[in-house]
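Students often ask why we bother encoding 3D structure as a string. The short answer is that it lets us treat folding as translation between two languages. Here is a chain of 120 residues written in the first language.
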Amino acid sequence: MITGTFLLFPLVCSARCLGPASFQTCDDPESGMHVDISRFGHEAVINGIRPDSGQTYQEFSTTIGHTTYIDGIDYNGRPRYEVRENFSRDFTDSYGINVGKGPYIQMKDTPPEDKARMSR
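And here it is in the second language, the structure alphabet:
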């Protein structure tokens, strides 16, 4: 399970991961990406590489209570920062700086039909 991380989005869906929760190595057969994830306490470090280009990616995340602080460097060496707040299963928000797009804020309220589906 990859928790408290932000940029593994497409990787999480199709990746195959090996190892215990404290250290996993993951490969995505669709994109060819390789990612190593180290977890200790409330922190995680993610290092990724694109085999086709050799470009690397690094991310650090720290979770304190219901808030996760994330910062990293994308494959092009550009910084990225995000804060995710999850105060209930019904509402989450995130804000930060998206690489190449600038600042953003996103709020998500779980619709009633999704709440019913999640409680099953």
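Translate back mentally: Residues 16-113 form one domain. Keep this in mind for the problem set.
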